[in-house]
Amino acid sequence: MTKFFFYSLCTLIVYAPIPLGANRIWASSTISFCIFALFLCHLLSSLKNKQPFAPPKYSLAVLVPLSITALWLAIQITPGLGPLLGRSFSTLSYDPSLTHIMLLKTIALTQFAWLVFYYVNTKALLYKFALSILLAGLFQALYASWLNLNEGMASPIFNIPYSTAAVGSFVYKNQLANYLALCLSIGIGVLISQLSIKGSGGQIRHKIRDIASVLLSTKMLIRLSLIIMIIALILTRSRMGNSAFFLALAAISIFSFFFYNRKPKHLRLLILSFFILDLILVGTIFGVEKVKQRLLETSLASETRDEVVRDSIPMILDYPVFGTGGGSFYSSFSKYQAQPYSGFYDHAHNDYIQFAAELGLPITLLLGTMVLYCLFISLKTIVKRKTPLYQGISFGCTAAIIHMLLHSTVDFSLQSPAIALLFVSILSLSLIASNLKR
Predict the structure, then answer these.
(1) Among 137, 143, 217, 346, which one has the highest count of C-beta atoms within 10 angstroms of its own C-beta?
(2) Quick check: 13 and 429 in contact, CB under 8 A?
(3) CA angle 108-112-114, nearest 5°?
(4) Residues 322-357: pLDDT tens digits?
(5) How far, in whole angstroms, is CA 354 from its chain's centroid?
(6) Whether the Cβ atoms of residue 262 and residue 197 lie closer than 8 Å to each other
(7) How far is the C-alpha of 5 from the C-alpha of 132, rounded, in Å?
(8) Nearest-CA neighbor of 6 among 124, 119, 130, 121?
(9) 227-246: per-residue pLDDT in tens?
(10) Distance (Å, rounded) from C-alpha 187 to C-alpha 229?
(11) DSSP string of 18-49?
(12) Cα–Cα distance between 111 and 5 in angstroms, integer?
């Protein structure tokens, strides 16, 4: 049964982004139902086999904030609380139906993290789970690149019209870019974990032997997968998606050059290859200049996202503690919008602002503390631990978290259930890699 639960988790990771990034009610509800069913089976199996059903104690750093958030959402849709706090409607939420949907998503994320902490409990399973994330990113990259390079072709999944920017099975290029960046980060961490700590020696035959072993090993397959994902990331033409990923990779790389415990022999060469080979050479072929041009043409005068953020701040000031209700930005923002923009905004295009407006500042700070704690633990693992896999996974988790912190300033990637599921999994892996025994 343990294998069944573990591979079910891996399957959900790969499947989640396929139905439009799970960014439709029917898609997210299907995934939530699968998680609920899997969690129920876990409880029944634990009772039947008289085994503990709770994950290790170190999981509380993720499970407690998520559980408190779910409880908060339940309070927001409780009838009768609105008038007690001076609101003109029954609940604390402006839109109880959307808050109810967000509550179900949050419970599903909490249960998924619970199962990840419980069943990813050995070094081998941690490696396999990281590979499933890499596989999910590779599938999205291949699918997105194939569609993008076949100009004018509609998507065979849901018949999405052709887009000049790669979108994969998502409907928004920036969300695909964010998803690929998270998968890339974990993939790079897996590859670093397989680098040799010792050199190959001075003799030529030793160097030839080591090169041949690399070409015939899984390292080459992982490296090719990363190149394909970087191609797809560039094809999204996402400004912040590309910028945040390479900035995050540069930041954690500089940190690792100085503080990585038992640094692998070719770590510097590998990192440099991502910037020289992938970004410059491969990027030139697949249009990194177009991304650069979009960055140069970006200005506050041509963008309206800053105006959305500006008009969202009064929402936070009016409801700083209890918020307007999870998922209610769509219905509550129109009351604060000073004038129409050149587009339709059902999200704040800034996860920090949207969480603060919908959930209130206390819950937003709680969730932010959870993310920063996982970032700290990943950095600590890189510095303190000696097991290459745990260090490599922590390297990937750190890059993924930094990327998300940067990308969330201009987008709403965490509003996509598929990306939220992947990010919660990465936060869980950061703690698992730090606490598993050698």
Answers:
(1) 137
(2) no
(3) 115
(4) 998 898 887 887 777 776 665 556 777 889 999 999
(5) 17
(6) yes
(7) 14
(8) 119
(9) 899 989 988 888 888 889 98
(10) 10
(11) TTGGG-SHHHHHHHHHHHHHHHHHHHHHHHHT
(12) 13
